[in-house]
Amino acid sequence: MGFLELLNFYVIPGIVLGSIYALGAVGITLVFAILRYAHLAHGDLATLGAFILGFSSILTGINFIVTTHKMRAPGLTWFRLPLFVWAQYATSLIMVLATPVLSITLVLLGVERAFGIGIFDPALGGDPILFEHLFWFYSHPAVYIMLLPAMGVVSEVIACFAHKRIFGYKVMAFSILAIALFGFLVWGHHMFVSGQSIYAGVAFSLLSFLVSVPSALKIFNWLATLYKGHIRFDAPMLFALSFIGLFLIGGLTGVFVATLALDIQMHDTYFVVAHFHYIMVGGMVSAYMAGLHFWWPKITGRLYPEMWARVSAIIVFAGFNLTFFPQFILGWAGMPRRYHAYAEEFQLLNVFSSAGAGMLAVGYLLPLLYLIWSLRYGARAGGNPWDARGLEWTVASPPPKENFATVPRVDSEAYAYDTPQ
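^ thats the sequence. predicted structure below, dont judge the formating
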């Protein structure tokens, strides 16, 4: 599948560079901004760039799906796969199935702009709510494109630093697939106040409650894995534990905004901002940092200073909560998002939020410094500095060019921490 990955690699830079000019005109929230500034010629370039960029996502998804089906090592059955691979597989399914919907939407948008056919623009007889449906049908699954790999990373880190098998491995694998499936069924909860049918709203609300079930199962199984484990609080584990705590808060507050009556009060307030960031920054970025620190010795062959990494994890966790938890209170009190000014009674909590953003900046700057420092001055890492399980930990750090001198054979279950590597 090397050709597909190479093609995907070359699709991205040209389109990104070609779209920089367009983004300068239409803004960061690409698709909404294209529609808003439909009279600008820049939007044509941005629409074309986003359309072609979608092929990169589709090709990457196909690559990972086919690789998982056809190129597993001998003995690596489906239920011996690391949960990170399950997460990547489910993510790839979303990329392949959801991205074409965004591409179709962009084609329709281009047709409307080029030929004046009313599809989305009400001035031409179009329906802007149709645009919202198509956009969110892609964009809600896109949240899981970012979140599911994070869950896979956390499973790897929790098992390693608890030195235990993952509790309920098959439940964890199927819950990943269930989250991917439900991701396609709940887009309408973004549109409770758009004027859509109240009966559709009830259905989307119930489905949104159901998507919390596989997510809750994952949290329960992570905590059960920790129970009576030989836990080491190294930096990857601290970031993974941060993910669990912050994702739990983000998920519970998602139940609030999935409730029809409450969402009418909280839609487009800072409550939604806080909920989103607890999922996507507190959750996803914490897991990214966990994975970065976990695999850094394997990637580079160097160890980073553990003390500073732990300090970074603690600062990020504290700074994040100081930044975004006050925004739940602000949103509940009615402070709207996307306004440059706010009422005087909201001042104190906004000051807390700004102070937390400063802490976050320090927490994220530290890894940039010590990871770069480690490339030159870090101690040499062995092949398996964490005593982890998995094929990547059986070779030197960094891995040799071809990874394995001979094709490895897998004879044990995933996360076999009760047996020597």
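The chain has twelve helices and no strands.
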